[in-house]
Specification:
Helices cover 14% and strands 27% of the residues. It contains seven helices and 22 strands. A four-stranded antiparallel sheet has the order 15-16-17-20, with no helix packed on it. It has a four-stranded antiparallel sheet with strand order 19-18-21-22, covered by helices on one side. Strand 9 and strand 10 form a beta hairpin. The longest helix is centred in the first third of the chain and has 14 residues. The protein starts with a helix and ends with a strand.
C-alpha cells in the first residue's frame, strides 16, 4: 500500500466507523482559519462541496480590515433609519462575547455584500458565503441519501425534511411532541454533519435579540429580493427547534438585510468540479462527483508520470501513467464511493474524486 493510500485510510477511518451511509455523505475536511486566527472544522460532502461546521465568528474581513461592532440595541436599530442607509456590522448575541465560541457572531447581510463592504470578503481566502444554488446542491445531496427524518429520498415543494439531519445534537429548546424536529430526540440529529446551532438573531427595527436555543439562521450570498417586495429584503436559511411541523425542514425565507444573522462559509469553486493547487502543479477534475468518466487536467510537467487511484479503504484500485495534460479516466468497473487520485515524486499531487451511481 502506498504512503498516500495509507494516509487516505487514516484520514477517513474515523468517519467510516459511523457506518456506510455517513461515509458516502461526507468526510472530515482539514479545517480553515479566518483573519482573526479562529479555526473552523470542515466537512467535505460527496457532491464535492466543503463547508464549515461552525458559525463564522471573525471580526475582520479577509484583508484584515476591522468590521464594525455595534453593541447597543438603539444603535443597531438606527442603522436602518432612514432606509436604505444600512451598514455592514456584526454583534454577539445579547451583546455578550461569551456567546462567541458556541454560536459565532451575528452579521447584517451588508457584511457579505461586496458593494457595501468595499469589495472585501467575510470568509477566509478561498472561501465564500453560499449562494442559494449552493444550498440547493447540499439539500439535494442529503435528501438523495435518505437523511430526511422519515428516510424519504424525494423533496415535495419546500418540504426537504432535513431539520434533524442539519441540526446539532445539543443546545436546542426541547420539543417532546413534534416528531422529526431538531428538538425532539436531539441525540439523533446531525446525520448530515452540518452541525447547525440555534444562535438566534437581532431585529433590524429595534435591535432586540431573539431566538437563542430556538432557531439558527444563515444568510444566502446572492441578493434575492422578494417578488414585488423591497430591495432591502433577501433570503436566508432557517432551522427551528420545533413547535410546528415546518420545523422538520431547513426553511428558506425572506428577511430584512439589516437583521443580524449567522454566516456559514464554504470553499469556493466546489460542487460541480474540484480544483486543487499543489505548488506549481494545479490539478482539476470535472465533473466531480461523476458517474463513469472524470476528466483530469494537470500541469504538463506531470505528463508521463505514474498515477494510482485508491479507494476509501486505502487500497490501490487503478494505476497507470498520466496520458496528457487533459485526459479522461474511466472507472466503469469501480463501485460508487470516494477515491484519491495521486502522483508521487517531485511536485507530487493528489485530488479527491467522488463516484456516484
Amino acid at each position: 500500500m502506498s504512503t498516500y493510500c495509507t494516509s487516505l485510510l487514516l484520514i477517513i477511518s474515523g468517519i467510516l466507523l459511523c457506518g456506510p451511509t455517513s461515509a458516502q455523505v461526507y468526510l472530515p475536511g482539514n479545517g480553515v482559519v479566518d483573519s482573526d486566527g479562529n479555526f473552523y472544522p470542515t466537512v467535505i460532502y460527496g457532491n464535492g462541496q466543503e463547508w464549515m461546521v461552525e458559525n463564522l465568528r471573525t471580526t475582520r474581513y479577509d484583508d484584515g480590515t476591522d468590521m464594525l461592532l455595534i453593541d447597543n440595541d438603539a444603535q443597531w436599530a438606527a442603522q436602518a433609519v432612514p432606509m436604505p442607509q444600512y451598514t455592514p456590522a456584526y454583534c454577539w448575541y445579547g451583546d455578550d462575547i461569551a456567546n462567541k465560541e458556541l454560536y459565532g457572531a451575528l452579521y447584517s447581510w451588508f457584511v457579505i455584500d461586496s458593494i457595501s463592504n468595499g469589495g472585501r470578503s467575510a470568509c477566509p481566502a478561498g472561501w465564500q458565503v453560499p449562494a442559494s444554488t449552493d444550498w440547493t446542491q447540499l439539500i439535494d445531496h442529503l435528501v438523495v441519501h435518505g437523511l430526511t427524518y422519515d428516510g424519504s429520498t424525494t423533496i415535495t415543494g419546500a418540504f426537504n425534511k432535513l431539520g434533524k439531519a442539519m441540526a446539532d445534537t445539543a443546545h436546542w429548546l426541547m420539543d417532546t411532541v413534534t416528531v422529526g424536529v431538531p428538538a425532539n430526540e436531539p441525540e439523533l440529529n446531525n446525520a448530515g454533519g452540518f452541525t447547525g446551532r440555534p444562535g438566534g438573531s437581532r431585529g433590524y427595527l429595534d435591535g432586540i435579540f431573539t431566538g437563542l436555543e430556538q432557531y439558527g439562521n444563515w444568510w444566502d450570498r446572492d441578493p434575492l429580493p422578494q417578488p414585488g417586495g423591497s430591495a432591502q429584503v433577501t433570503t436566508y436559511r432557517l432551522l427551528l427547534y420545533g413547535g410546528q411541523a415546518n420545523a422538520r425542514h431547513l426553511g428558506h425565507y425572506y428577511g430584512n438585510k439589516m437583521t443580524a444573522k449567522s454566516i456559514r462559509c464554504m470553499r469556493a469553486n466546489t460542487g460541480t468540479g474540484t480544483r486543487q493547487d499543489h505548488g506549481h502543479a494545479p490539478v482539476m477534475a470535472f465533473p466531480n462527483p461523476f458517474h463513469q468518466y472524470v476528466t483530469i487536467v494537470v500541469d504538463p510537467a506531470t505528463v508521463g508520470r505514474a498515477f494510482t487511484l485508491c479507494d476509501a479503504m486505502g487500497r490501490t484500485v487503478l494505476w497507470g501513467t498520466v496520458e496528457a495534460d487533459r485526459w479522461s479516466l474511466g472507472t466503469q468497473d469501480l463501485p460508487s464511493g470516494i477515491y484519491l487520485l495521486q502522483v508521487e515524486g517531485p511536485e507530487a499531487w493528489s485530488i479527491r474524486l467522488v463516484k456516484e451511481d
